[in-house]
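REQUEST FORM: STRUCTURE PREDICTION
Request ID: SP-0412
Submitted by: Lab K.M.
Chain count: 1
Length (residues): 133
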Amino acid sequence: MTPPSTAATPTAPALREILMVTTTVATEAEAKRLAHAVLHARLAACVQVEPITAYFHWEGALEECRELRVACKTAASAMPALMALLRKQHPYTLPQLVVQPVQASAEYGCWVDEQLVQQQQQQPARQPAMAMA
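STATUS: Completed
RESULT:
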Protein backbone atom coordinates (compact mmCIF):
# COMPACT_ATOMS: atom_id res chain seq x y z
CA MET A 1 0.00 0.00 0.00
CA THR A 2 1.29 3.47 -0.88
CA PRO A 3 1.18 6.09 1.88
CA PRO A 4 -0.79 9.27 1.11
CA SER A 5 1.21 12.08 -0.42
CA THR A 6 2.33 14.84 1.89
CA ALA A 7 2.82 17.30 -0.98
CA ALA A 8 0.53 20.30 -0.84
CA THR A 9 -2.30 20.12 -3.32
CA PRO A 10 -2.87 23.32 -5.23
CA THR A 11 -6.14 25.04 -4.48
CA ALA A 12 -8.19 26.91 -7.02
CA PRO A 13 -7.73 30.67 -6.79
CA ALA A 14 -10.59 32.57 -5.21
CA LEU A 15 -12.77 34.24 -7.81
CA ARG A 16 -15.42 36.95 -7.71
CA GLU A 17 -18.06 37.77 -10.25
CA ILE A 18 -17.99 41.22 -11.83
CA LEU A 19 -19.95 42.50 -14.81
CA MET A 20 -18.55 43.56 -18.15
CA VAL A 21 -20.87 46.04 -19.87
CA THR A 22 -19.91 46.68 -23.49
CA THR A 23 -21.04 49.07 -26.17
CA THR A 24 -19.58 50.38 -29.40
CA VAL A 25 -19.09 53.87 -30.84
CA ALA A 26 -17.79 55.28 -34.11
CA THR A 27 -15.05 57.65 -32.96
CA GLU A 28 -12.30 57.97 -30.38
CA ALA A 29 -13.89 61.20 -29.15
CA GLU A 30 -17.21 59.43 -28.48
CA ALA A 31 -15.42 56.58 -26.69
CA LYS A 32 -13.45 59.01 -24.55
CA ARG A 33 -16.57 61.03 -23.70
CA LEU A 34 -18.48 57.91 -22.59
CA ALA A 35 -15.50 56.55 -20.64
CA HIS A 36 -15.04 59.83 -18.78
CA ALA A 37 -18.78 60.13 -18.02
CA VAL A 38 -18.91 56.57 -16.64
CA LEU A 39 -15.76 56.98 -14.54
CA HIS A 40 -16.74 60.45 -13.28
CA ALA A 41 -20.04 58.98 -12.04
CA ARG A 42 -18.08 56.01 -10.57
CA LEU A 43 -20.40 53.55 -12.26
CA ALA A 44 -17.45 51.42 -13.38
CA ALA A 45 -14.02 50.82 -11.91
CA CYS A 46 -12.32 50.65 -15.30
CA VAL A 47 -13.23 51.38 -18.92
CA GLN A 48 -11.25 49.86 -21.76
CA VAL A 49 -11.45 51.04 -25.38
CA GLU A 50 -10.28 48.94 -28.32
CA PRO A 51 -10.75 49.12 -32.11
CA ILE A 52 -12.90 46.48 -33.82
CA THR A 53 -14.53 45.82 -37.17
CA ALA A 54 -18.29 45.25 -36.99
CA TYR A 55 -20.36 43.39 -39.59
CA PHE A 56 -24.14 43.64 -39.24
CA HIS A 57 -27.47 44.14 -40.99
CA TRP A 58 -28.91 47.65 -40.70
CA GLU A 59 -32.00 48.93 -42.48
CA GLY A 60 -31.88 46.13 -45.05
CA ALA A 61 -28.19 46.41 -45.94
CA LEU A 62 -25.16 44.43 -44.84
CA GLU A 63 -22.80 46.87 -43.13
CA GLU A 64 -19.10 46.75 -42.32
CA CYS A 65 -17.55 49.50 -40.26
CA ARG A 66 -14.69 50.30 -37.94
CA GLU A 67 -15.86 50.95 -34.41
CA LEU A 68 -14.46 51.18 -30.93
CA ARG A 69 -15.57 48.74 -28.26
CA VAL A 70 -16.08 50.40 -24.88
CA ALA A 71 -15.94 47.83 -22.06
CA CYS A 72 -16.93 48.89 -18.55
CA LYS A 73 -15.99 46.71 -15.56
CA THR A 74 -18.60 47.11 -12.86
CA ALA A 75 -20.67 45.37 -10.18
CA ALA A 76 -24.31 44.32 -10.24
CA SER A 77 -25.21 47.12 -7.81
CA ALA A 78 -24.08 49.81 -10.29
CA MET A 79 -25.38 48.17 -13.46
CA PRO A 80 -28.86 49.79 -13.65
CA ALA A 81 -27.42 53.30 -13.27
CA LEU A 82 -24.62 52.51 -15.72
CA MET A 83 -27.10 51.27 -18.33
CA ALA A 84 -29.22 54.41 -17.86
CA LEU A 85 -26.18 56.66 -18.33
CA LEU A 86 -25.07 54.79 -21.46
CA ARG A 87 -28.57 54.93 -22.97
CA LYS A 88 -28.85 58.65 -22.27
CA GLN A 89 -25.41 59.66 -23.53
CA HIS A 90 -24.90 57.19 -26.40
CA PRO A 91 -24.69 58.74 -29.89
CA TYR A 92 -26.34 55.75 -31.66
CA THR A 93 -30.07 55.38 -32.26
CA LEU A 94 -29.87 51.73 -31.20
CA PRO A 95 -26.72 51.22 -29.12
CA GLN A 96 -25.29 47.81 -28.40
CA LEU A 97 -25.54 47.37 -24.64
CA VAL A 98 -24.38 43.91 -23.60
CA VAL A 99 -23.92 42.75 -20.00
CA GLN A 100 -21.78 39.69 -19.30
CA PRO A 101 -20.93 38.22 -15.90
CA VAL A 102 -17.22 37.38 -15.76
CA GLN A 103 -15.02 35.76 -13.14
CA ALA A 104 -12.16 37.89 -11.84
CA SER A 105 -9.55 37.30 -9.17
CA ALA A 106 -10.93 38.00 -5.71
CA GLU A 107 -8.47 40.86 -5.28
CA TYR A 108 -9.51 42.51 -8.54
CA GLY A 109 -13.19 42.01 -7.72
CA CYS A 110 -12.65 43.73 -4.36
CA TRP A 111 -10.91 46.63 -6.12
CA VAL A 112 -13.87 47.00 -8.49
CA ASP A 113 -16.26 47.10 -5.53
CA GLU A 114 -14.09 49.65 -3.69
CA GLN A 115 -14.14 52.02 -6.65
CA LEU A 116 -17.93 51.91 -6.78
CA VAL A 117 -18.34 52.29 -3.01
CA GLN A 118 -16.39 55.54 -3.19
CA GLN A 119 -19.10 56.92 -5.49
CA GLN A 120 -21.74 56.24 -2.87
CA GLN A 121 -19.63 57.88 -0.16
CA GLN A 122 -19.08 61.03 -2.25
CA GLN A 123 -22.79 61.70 -2.77
CA PRO A 124 -24.17 64.38 -0.45
CA ALA A 125 -26.35 63.13 2.36
CA ARG A 126 -30.06 63.66 1.82
CA GLN A 127 -31.77 66.11 4.10
CA PRO A 128 -34.66 64.64 6.09
CA ALA A 129 -38.08 65.82 4.97
CA MET A 130 -39.59 68.47 7.21
CA ALA A 131 -43.00 67.67 8.64
CA MET A 132 -45.68 70.19 7.76
CA ALA A 133 -47.47 71.68 10.79
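NOTES: The chain has a mean pLDDT of 88.
Reviewed by: T.R.
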